[in-house]
Amino acid sequence: MTREEVLDSVNENVENKNLVKHMLAVEAIMRALAKRLGEDEEEWGLTGLLHDIDVELTAGDMSSYSKLGADLAKELGASESMAHAILCHNEAHGVSRETKLDKALYCADPLTGLITAAALVRPDKKLAGLEAKSVLKRFKEKSFAAGAGREPISQCSELGLGLDEFVELGLEAMKGIADDLGL
Ligand SMILES: [Fe+2]
Fold this sequence. Notes:
- The protein has 183 residues and is mainly α.
- It has 10 helices and no strands.
- The protein has helices at 3-13, 17-37, 41-50, 67-76, 80-88, 100-120, 132-140, 150-154, 163-175, 178-181.
- Bound molecules: fe (ii) ion (FE2).
- Residues 22, 26, 51-52, 109 line the site of fe (ii) ion.
């Protein structure tokens, strides 16, 4: 399974380009996390890129969302551990997060939303001038980008990362693909 094959499949299954950008952002953060933790960057990155592949196919049906995604990922050649991380990032299945990969996907997913929202309220709507301390300030404003779950983001502690470091890492990772994200 190559990254190109994964990206093609994501684009085939997800029409909304903002959702594809979200998956690219999660991929970037997952790669940075894997590098930081000495894990497999390709495996973690592709898990991030694949994680919402079924989001439009399941159309809000939380009982199938992520289950179908895990199946599609395996069809593409993803490992069991990648499929497990995708499955358990939807809490509706009641599958517990066991591995570091499971935990990383769970906290990286909402961080992209917080960072994207923090960029979009800037006059230039760009990531380049956004600082981690601004994102951390936004983190504490509960009503700001409320969909970006603060509790899941805080679970970075399960990976041995403090919130400050996690936000910094995530922001730098997203800045690295700012053009792809249109930010
Ligand atoms: Fe997601």
